[in-house]
């Protein structure tokens, strides 16, 4: 095995590991956001979903989710 093959192999393996870790990090981040949404709704908040479909030209699809948290309890305006 010459030097170029060894370097290419090491770089390829390193990039594969970095991509795997980045994918896991993105999944963890998404899960954390979903748990935040679930906590907000469980605490008396509301979720509003606005779905708009296009007329078939291009992408034309939008999904907007708005989380409305309940007003905080026990804190005054000046706090």
Explain this structure to me?
The chain is of the alpha+beta class. The protein has one domain. It is 51% helix and 18% strand. The protein has a two-stranded antiparallel ribbon with strand order 1-2. The N and C termini lie far apart (69 Å). Keywords: Membrane, Transmembrane, Transmembrane helix.
Features of this protein?
single chain; 79 residues; alpha+beta; two-stranded antiparallel sheet; 1 helix; 2 strands; 51% helix; 18% strand; transmembrane helix; transmembrane; membrane
- Rg calc: 23 Å
Strand content: 15-25%
- How many helical stretches? 1
Shape: elongated
Into how many domains do the coordinates divide? 1
Helix content: 40-55%
**Structural class from helices and strands?**
alpha+beta
Q: Pick out the low-confidence regions.
A: none
């Amino acid at each position: 095995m010459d030097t170029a093959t060894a370097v290419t192999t090491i770089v390829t393996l390193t990039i594969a590991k970095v991509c795997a870790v980045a994918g896991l990090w993105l999944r963890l981040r998404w899960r954390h956001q979903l748990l935040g949404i679930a906590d907000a709704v469980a605490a008396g908040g509301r979720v509003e979903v606005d779905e708009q479909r296009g007329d078939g030209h291009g992408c034309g699809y939008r999904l907007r989710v708005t989380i409305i948290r309940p007003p905080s309890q026990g804190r005054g305006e000046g706090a």
